[in-house]
Amino acid sequence: MIDVEKIRRESMRWYILVALNHARPVDPHEALVLTTIQGIYTDATQLEVRRELDYLADRRLATLDKRPDGSWICGLTHFGVDLVEYSTECRVGIARPPRG
After folding, report:
1. Would you tell me which of 20, 40, 66, 75 could form a disulfide with 27, CB atoms 3.0–4.6 Å apart?
2. Looking at the domain assignment, is residue 76 inside a domain?
3. Rounded to two decimals, what is the model's pTM?
4. Is residue 93 one of the residues assigned to a domain?
5. Strand partners, 63
6. Average pLDDT of 53-78?
7. Which CATH number covers residue 49?
8. Collapsing DSSP states into helix, strand and coil, what is residue 51?
9. Over the chain, what is the mean pLDDT?
10. Looking at the domain assignment, is residue 68 inside a domain?
11. Local structure of residue 98 (DSSP, 8 states)
């Protein structure tokens, strides 16, 4: 049986990493990431994107600056850059496509 939710989560993580990589060297506001993800998954919510950003931060692939006003600023760590640039192996949990 295909786990559609798992595919969505893991793909969303990859797309977030790619979006953050394109924003470098600027660490973008979460709204930019959400808008990017909504271009792929039109029903994506802020909560869903924040959950995946937290996951990526826990894996030390992304940075999060959770501001007192409630907004988040996010960026990539050097581990995240290496992953997006295919310089390192991609462990389970992120749907990185094969290098083409």
Report:
1. 75
2. yes
3. 0.95
4. no
5. 75
6. 97
7. 1.10.10.10
8. helix
9. 97
10. yes
11. P
